[in-house]
């Protein structure tokens, strides 16, 4: 397995990421400071700058959480491990009469993605332009940073705030003398940098036909051989 540690700092992306985890009913592990054990809970909802999580299990752990504490939180979903820190605000009862914890919305989320297979990195001088279509826009040019059998990392000039996780985009990838690979991809995460005016997105290929999978495999093998010849670390 290949692991890649990334960070999400865009407020919009943080909220959309957490909303997708809420929809998937993902269990989280939470630990107060000075406690080695993690307790389990679920994110109930997002309100303003706060997250509301269910009371933790085992129930005896709820009395360990105090206002002002920085809580360490982990969530695993689809081979991705999310980690962030939130401040505990209060332990209360919601409108439905259930106990819950109010914690702050995180300002950054680190995530570690485990991928099956290898990911081919491209040198900056060899970064390949590709064409993508982000609904409802027409095709625009992006830069391919790396690629694997399951997905890719792309860079798009400008602020593409309409971009959202789970959006499906059309890609047209052509590297060197290879035949163009037309496929669809799902946005897994994205982040816009004001310093570089670049939107960086991680995408997962979907609905690939068998011929397209074979074409992608040949493309990866070609890139791998090229990197070996040019002493490029994979």
Structure keywords:
single chain; 234 residues; mainly beta; 6-stranded antiparallel beta barrel; 6-stranded antiparallel β-barrel; 15 strands
What does this structure look like?
This protein has 234 residues and is mostly beta strands. The protein folds into 2 domains: 2-114, Pnp Oxidase, Chain A, CATH 2.30.110.10; 117-229, predicted glycosyltransferase like domains (Thrombin, subunit H, Beta Barrel). The protein is 14% helix and 49% strand. Strand 10 (128-133) and strand 11 (139-148) form a beta hairpin. The two termini are 13 Å apart. The mean pLDDT is 82.
Indicate the CATH architecture of the largest domain: Roll
Beta-strand share of residues: over 45%
Largest sheet: 6 strands, antiparallel, barrel
Q: Could you give the count of β-strands?
A: 15
**DSSP helical segment count:** 2
User: What would you call the shape?
Assistant: elongated
Q: Give the radius of gyration.
A: 21 Å
Helix content: 10-25%
Query: What class would the helix/strand composition place it in?
Result: mainly beta
Kindly provide the name of the CATH class of the largest domain. Mainly Beta
* N/C terminus separation: 13 Å
- The H-level CATH homologous superfamily of the largest domain, spelled out, is Electron Transport, Fmn-binding Protein, Chain A
Task: Give the number of domains.
Answer: 2
CATH fold label of the largest domain: Pnp Oxidase, Chain A
Unreliable residue stretches: none
Sheet with most strands: strand arrangement:
2-3-4-7-6-5
**Mean pLDDT reading:** 82
SSE order, as H and E? EHEEEEEEEEEEEEEEH
